[in-house]
Amino acid sequence: MIRLINVCKRYPGGHQALTNLTFELEDGEMAFLTGHSGAGKSTLLKLIALMERPTSGQLIVNGKNLGKLKTHQVPYHRRNLGLIFQNHQLLYDRTVFDNVALPLVIAGHRHQEVRRRVLAALDKVQLLGKEHLYPITLSGGEQQRVGIARAVVNRPKLLLADEPTGNLDPDLSAEIMGLFQDFNRVGVSVLIVTHDYDLIRSMPNRILHVEHGKLEGDYPRRDRPAANPAEGQTQVTQSSERDATDEEDGDE
Ligand SMILES: Nc1ncnc2c1ncn2[C@@H]1O[C@H](COP(=O)(O)OP(=O)(O)OP(=O)(O)O)[C@@H](O)[C@H]1O
Ligand SMILES: [Mg+2]
Questions:
Q1: Is 105 helix (H, G, I), strand (E, B) or coil?
Q2: Are 159 and 85 in contact (CB under 8 A)?
Q3: Ligand 1 centre distance from Cα of residue 39 (Å)
Q4: For the sheet containing 214-219, what is the strand order?
Q5: Mean residue pLDDT across the chain
Q6: Does residue 130 have its Cβ closer than 6 Å to ligand 1?
Q7: Domains of the chain by range and CATH?
Q8: Per-residue confidence at 181, pLDDT binned at 50, 70, 90?
Q9: Pick from 79, 126, 151, 229: most CB atoms within 10 A?
Q10: Which ligand is nearest to the CA of 85?
């Protein structure tokens, strides 16, 4: 679904945000992307979404070599992606319905189709019945779920989320991660930037760890969560912790 080959990104002004990044995210895979502030995580998502272009290297997303896409093809590329940001970027003068409908309206879908898909997306994130409310009247977790509904309303093959649980308490964070797992279970590929080590330690998914723009760790999917997620205070950067829990395959 995503393939990076020696991707480098240097911003104008000279900052080297990513250096020789090479990895692959399989079709239908869900992985976390971790790393310190400024490590280059958001930059990586922006490259995949073509909000930025790499300085060198190749990015292949959904079978397309992004370096070969022309500017007019970018919107079509984005339609295959669902993007979720920490500050969910909702429009506060529009209802929940209108916020979620936005990508479909932009893509020119008919009214009936928009309505059907928006209600289906709101149903998935358990917000059916709140479509006429304004985002400001919703809780933080509900607003985040509106952002997720908007990201999935186009039925993207790939979801990219940048710290989607950054402002949420542990219960809500677990709920949001559960939603991503639900989408992943039906075949959507998912890449989630997160600092929430406590939460992802209890989840089986692969973890990619970036430091100073370089891929410093790639910890494969574990087949089931640790028996006691609270155990082991070590960071995910220590491979021994994950090796110890690696076992034979067996998907859900
Ligand atoms: N538009 C830009 N112009 C110049 N430098 C930038 C730009 N965007 C990001 N950078 C720099 O690139 C580096 C990586 O930034 P990035 O936003 O990818 O980090 P991050 O890992 O997402 O950090 P955080 O966890 O704080 O969100 C940082 O040093 C940042 O200052
Ligand atoms: Mg960031």
A1: helix
A2: no
A3: 7
A4: 81-84, 158-162, 189-193, 30-34, 206-211, 214-219
A5: 87
A6: no
A7: 1-80+156-167+180-252 (3.40.50.300), 87-155 (no CATH)
A8: very high
A9: 151
A10: 2
